[in-house]
Sequence to fold (652 residues):
Amino acid sequence: MRNFLTITLSLLGFFAVSQNKQILYGFDDIPQSLMLNPGSEVTHKKHYGIPFLSQIHVNGGSSGVSVYDIFKDGSDNINDRITQQIFEMKNTDFFTATQQLELINFGWRAKNEIYFSGGVYQEFDFIAYFPRDLAILAWEGNRDYLDYEFDLGEISTTGDFMTVYHFGINKQITDKLTVGARLKLYSSMFSYRSVNNAGTFVTTLGDDDSANIYEHTIRNADVSVETSGYASLRELDGASQVTSEILGRAFFGGNLGVGVDLGFTYDINEAWTLSASAQDVGAIFHSKDVESYSAKGNYTLDGINLIFPPLNQGDPTFPYYDDLEDEIEREIPIDTLNNSYTQFRPVKLNAALSYGFGRFNASGDCDCLNMGGGMQHKNNVGLQFYSIFRPKGPQMAGTFFYHRRVTDYLSAKATYTVDSYSFSNVGLGVSADIGKVNFYIAADNLIKYSNLAKAKSVSLQLGFNIIIDEE
Amino acid sequence: MNKTLSLSIFAVCASFFLISCIKDTDFDQTEDIALTPIVELDLIYFNLRADRFFDSINSNPILTVRDTTEIKFLDDTGLQESLKRAEFYFKFTNSIPRSFQVDFQFLSETNDTTYVSGTSVAEGAPATPVITEFIENVEGDDILEITKANKVVVSVTIPSSDENLEGTLNLKSKTTYFLEY
Fold:
């Protein structure tokens, strides 16, 4: 098992990776499915996640380009391939990376039949939209793009590193309906965002009346970057100091926020079940160690206008260059602000409609696994919907799934997902109970596993729990 | 289904996650990645009236006028390493009935001359301005010299002048920077 884990963990390095955990959602055999829907049907009595190992989640994606598109082994030039990809990609294409590590996760059913669960996890979440115009400008320059307005508003990126403390309740309130809620406290260790930017840059060929050959114009620029937890890091010396400072913020030392997860599961009849959840409905209030930069204005650069002033020998001429720099700073000032700001968390929505068939009764006459009342099916098929709110609008995914309980200690779920990345994403998850130890692993984009370089996204979750079933 | 069989199935499924690999790729190509932007940027411009070449108080011709400007970006370390070629384009529009010699002297921070260039400008007439274009292409070892400079002295020399001289010498200029990162 140790070797297995070592190999698995070492593989994580290959995953570059959105936050969709389509395999884990509704996979009730795994306690962590409660993290995706606090109102899922819990079949066990207690669970304890093995600290640091109860959930390891990595997810990375690039909607427009794969590693293979750029680094494929071929006789053509890599720079030609990059050029081609830059022009093929759109400004709505994006790169994302998410990583989560559960430190603690636990849950128990109280005498009043409420299932309480809580824990702590650390999360890193990054998204950057592809700034196509700026990529073209950097890659090709402006010579072949006279009169073309490069859009500065394409800059859109956010990044967060935080610890989340959570506590949830789950209760079956009628024979058919289970509901749940989870309160979350966020402690942000580091955060930045640059969104809602605007402005254009254009180089135009001047006419006879123009001061110089070209006019380089920045129009209606409004570009800002907000950071929290960054300003104090600049004064630190070396990686070890930075690391210890950031980790020190993990225990409520950073900027705090609050949010909730809400969810339900409704058994329409014996076969059909509907469930839905909303995660991270909340915000982080950045007030400590906040530093924001903002540049606004209009400016047209013509070059340097020489006056040829009549000077005596040894007199200095005008400081043209310094004057030009001052003029640019005056017209497009870069302000550094320390204003607090509120950052809404990216809300995630999940919903599923499933059809179960084949009665599951693995342990003889007694339906021991199922004290909750509802019937467990051997097979479930259905559809899932996922959406996450991102700076340029929601990113959505649709999933068709098949879930099968093979034995009382082994179940598996296969998924086919259509999302921003691809139309051919097949995923598989397995949950095994070996004694009281539950192990699960879920990964998507399996068709691309023979060559991960061709995958535009990869998502992986794995973890170990101790599950104590109902007596 | 017995436990051994189902564990075997689990093992097969689990191992499926471990057979992933990355193929048919060559990451050594990273070294070949080169950004080669070509940037067009205005340089200097001026309008010199004919009366600048005559001192009306002392009734003396002024045969050479000079001005200097810093161009601090030129000796920036980043530009020194990435500039492969620079093409300077000067466009003179002369309505003064004299020809001119215009010289560009690039100086380092310590005022050492690192690069010189110059051109003659054709004679014009107040009613019919004449255009003279001049291109200075800098590449190879000369790039090293020109990127040591952080200012340029522009000297405009007229062969003769008098108080009745009319017209304007106009310069517009730009540089095309061929960069490689």
Q: What stands out?
A: Residues 3-16 of chain B form the longest helix (14 residues). The two ends of chain B are 62 Å apart (CA to CA). Chain B touches chain A through 57 residues (CB under 8 Å). The longest strand of chain B covers residues 38-49.
